[in-house]
Amino acid sequence: MATAASPSRPSSIAELKRIAQPPEVRLRRNAEHWTASLYLRSLSPYLTWLLLKTSISANGVTGLMIVVGWSTAAALLIPGLGGAALAVILGQLQMLVDCCDGEVARWRGTSSPAGVFLDKVGHYTTEALIPIALGIRAAGYPFEAPEDFLWTTLGLLLALVIVLNKALNDMVHVARANAGLDKLADHRDEAVPSQALVARLRRAARFVPFHRLYHSVELTLLALGAAIVGTILTLAGVDDGQLLADRWLVGLLVPLSMLALAGHFVAILASKRVRG
Q: Strand (E) positions, the chain?
């Protein structure tokens, strides 16, 4: 449902923040990535200010976010440290634009289900394409059949598991809607498992939060870390040092992603989120 529109352009950054960044947005537990809380929400009003001077719609900004996300994955196809560094920059830019589309929508009063849908498309596709690109990096260029296809297959498997893990949260909302339950409240108590053992395991996971590694930001940072390690190995005289580092990264991410998926599934079933 669209909201009441504000004047076409804000008179100040403070006014823009008041309308486009209300407390219910800044304090959301699940919808804000840590980069948004850390610094992107401080920068986004300035980009939003520029966007509001154009005729681009909020959905158009979301489309821009999608293109930047796909470009992030494409950057990883550039071998070595340069491609990984570019992917990190583009990954941060995607999150910045992701902040702005909602701010434009709230200022203009054009929030809609279509915008939410496009936002989901952007994050799902980006976070599927990045692991595929990581698998291609791990396979190296040019491909040698059949041994290199192991790494592209692992990249595809990683993409599948990441998408399934993301989809679990949306499945909860679909299940509640189909059961006629109220919209899920965005607070911590709803996610706490009711079984004591599962709750303890969930608390323990906070100390080793590998389940948080599968967002586009974290994946690009890991790719950069692997690229740095690979560069060091190469300078130290290790044959195919960069390839070795990329393969270790993909090889570790796949089993950890499966563990994260299983844990997420159990945590949902044990929580109030799917209870009447």
A: none
